[in-house]
Amino acid sequence: MYGIASLLKPNAVLLVALLVVGAGILAAGCTTPGGNVTQPTGTGTPTATETANVTTAATTVAGGEAATVDLAAENIAFDTSTITVPAGAEVTVNFDNQDVGILHNFAVYTDSSAAEEIFVGETITGPAETTYTFTAPEEPGTYFFRCDVHPQQMTGDFVVE
Ligand SMILES: [Cu+2]
Hints:
three-stranded mixed beta sheet
């Protein structure tokens, strides 16, 4: 019995040693793929966080009251002389320049001196449509809008209430 036991012991030690080495290799093998799996997961998590942040930002923006304005320019004139929006609103202006070959834009200033701009839209050549978005002033009052290309002919009151 002792003889067998003593014969088995070295084998057992060898087996344990092999198992330990094997386990080490397996562990190493598992760690590397595990690390690779973890990295994309880690990359995916910030992406999800960014998406969440974007969503949050969008929600915050949407939190401001939205106002949509349809505005057309034809024969060097706007089709309205007064635009009214809620204070602090996220304003969307659907601008339709119907004048062929003529430049127009939409711009809002604090007053008719046009010294202090609130929003200046990109100029477009008709016939063309564009969409302008900006945030209305928080302070209620009567501001001023115009086409910068035709500051005499194309003006109006931009009312914030
Ligand atoms: Cu114009």
